From TrEMBL:
Names of required cofactors: heme b
Region called Disordered, residue ranges: 143-164
Matches recorded under InterPro entries: OXD
This protein's name: Phenylacetaldoxime dehydratase
Pfam families, per database record: Dehydratase_hem
Alphabetized UniProt keyword annotations: Heme, Iron, Lyase, Metal-binding
Amino acid sequence: MLRSRFPTAHHFTVSLFGCQYQAESPSTAKLDLINKFEDLIKVAALHVEEFEQNDLPSKIWMSYWRSPQSFKSWWTSDDTLSFWNSLPDDAGFWRETFSLPATRAMYESNAEQPSGFGHCGESIPLTDKTGYWGAYRSRMTPDSPDDKFASSLSTPPEPRPFTTKIRYGRTRMTKFPDNICVVVEGQDYSLMPDKEREYWDENFAGLTKQWVTNVVTAGAKQGMVSARACHGFSSGKVLGATSHRVGQPTNDSALFPGLHYIRQAQILFWLDLSKMEHLGRWDKVHVKLRRNFMTAYGPGGACEGGDLLLWVDLGILKGNEIDAEYVGCYDGTGFLAYDEHPEFASDSKIGTELTSFFDKPIESKPIDW
């Protein structure tokens, strides 16, 4: 297993962008906006991963940036300003930008090829703080002795229900509670040989689909603020995550859609780290999946050294490290669902006016591990 060593002289930045088709496929006008946006971002970011959302016709770009300052340089450039500020009131475009210091971010993967946060750091072996409940927390460095990474909210906020009613115009989210925990779990089945694929289909496919369903539908009571299940866009949407021989019978109609694709990612924002930890430890499907996986892919296991690609990103965010904007999106999209909550806040200013957080680098001092 590998992990990332992130820079300590500054944060790194991840910016999610989305375009809701507001139809089964994008119109000619919307496709033109998509192409123009891609021409802008692909030449500037460290890396751009392209997804489609499983349950909503839309495209998502997950872009990675060296620092908040490098993101700001691109975001405030003439071409980007011209594009974003001229979006129509029903554009369906949104942005959720977050920045993380080395003290409150981690990435791990079983492959040398970087994925996710791995694009923002140096790849090194994962030899410590792994294989036990609470390992992710033990890799974090608190900002102070009193910082337990707990949410500043006493109870999970209730989102406004998602609807397909378009919220016309711009809504900029300007306030967030501390310690929202962002997690990205990714899977790529494309390189698995037949023997490993058969073993996976017999032993893990059903469990994996059920666990993904459980986590992305966990809801506010379990501390989920926002969840998106996505599949790879550039892979040609190849159905190949499993064959039809699944060891654990599942009722496909009860599963979240889109879980057969060959490259997948779940983008999750939890109220805080403890909510993620609780569901991981107490969800029976996840406990069984984790135990069986460690046996099969561990030393002497049936799939030891297998070619399944997995990665996990995790970050703990302070309120000023998140910035979001929605332009003509469905009401209830992402953080827009909380714009009436007192611990969130919004305005209608154009989102290219970034906060002062993006102006100067902030040094961090992570624990040595």
